[in-house]
Amino acid sequence: MRAIQTVIAFFTFLAGTISIHAQVVAPGRDLSLLTEYVNTTKQDSIFVFYGSTGNLSAAHSTGNPSTFKWYRYNTDSLKFKLFAEESNLSQSLKESLAEGGYRVEITDNTDSTETYTCWLFTDDVTLNNIEIDNNCEFLELNPITTPSSYNIPYDRFAYFDLSRNPNRENNTYGKQYFDNITWTSSDSRIDVSQEKQLRLVIEEPAPLYNSSYTITIVNPFGRTLSLSTPEITAIATKADDLIQVDEDGSWKDWDSNGEYEALLGLRLESKSLNCDSIYWKMTTKKIEPLGDFNYVIWRDSSLIATRNDAYPDKNIMVPGYYTIYHYSVNTSSGCIDSIITDIKVDSSKLSADIIPNVFSPNGDGINDRFVFSDTDASIRSISSFSIKIFSRSGKLVYEYSGNPHDWEGWDGKTNIGTDAAEGVYYFIIEARGWDNRKFARGPYKGFLHLFRGK
């Protein structure tokens, strides 16, 4: 009668009505956890072994000689099935047990039966090797585990919630097994993603420096798995460049929002990484009756060890739109990368608004010259320029031909060095842009007034 009562007590234990001190232990275990049954506050033990098998030991709470019936949980039938029975022992030890659920019924010599349940996890996951896919676009590192990393979240480290009917599988530990992953590179210049992924992909760019890589996994049981690759040779290349423009004889960094006039001097410097050869190409748009297309107007190449800069002929940089292609090449691997930059050279411009109609060369420092205002903004990409000034009788008194930016203006003196008389003069300006646009009519002819009074 006492045996029946004890068995009933075990089942009511699942409903949380009694408390029995556990008499199942796991010699040599590495970690002990508790289940998370949802319909009871009473939980079973989970014993974790860092290996392929584990051990369980059981004894009756009285310590009396007893009969032991060992059961293993069958995940197909969702029931415990007997696999071993021993008699007249004060303690029963089961060794080399596989992962799973276990139950032991212990009946001592006074006919008192106690029943205990536990779950046994065998954490024998190993990192075997890291598969390497090293190419021009990316480096992929794929750790290979035993058992397969695809099976662990679903087929390992699961227990069943015995408080629910039918029993429900709980595989929290398997799903969390690869949650805490860190990848590191032996070269700090390589940007290694901090996303906690088992498979590592480094791209945009692929690694540009030789490096070994280490994966470290800290699993939910506190066990650390770590493995490193040998040094992997970087085969990818990354194209990069610095473009500078000639401004008054000095090189200034090109600004995509800047305005530049012809003839534009350019300095192209390669900043490419992990390459041995560099190439440059410049195209512009050509318009024909059947449409327009880009055609090459300049090329350059060199070994990076010889030089890393290039200077397109500024005579080709007339007003228009240009595309600069820069290629970096790693000849040993065959990897190539490129970067493209669009350059605009301003169309020719000569604004009539900058031409004054009066000046007073009297030496007071105010309006002493007949000169353009705001030449940097209003005169652009002019290839030839001339100005002639005539008296009212049609006599040429002054002329200039050259760069309009260099023209300092008319100071009121004739070409022979005498002061021109006060009065009205007539000017003619002729100019041509590097795009062959002519500036010769309309507002580029007119009258100006010369005053000498104080």
Automatic annotation (TrEMBL):
Top-rank lineage group of the source organism: Bacteria
Keyword Signal (UniProt): yes
Signal peptide location: 1-22
Pfam families: CHU_C
Keyword Signal belongs to the record: yes
Keywords associated with the record: Signal
Record's protein name: T9SS type B sorting domain-containing protein
Organism listed in the record: Tenuifilum thalassicum
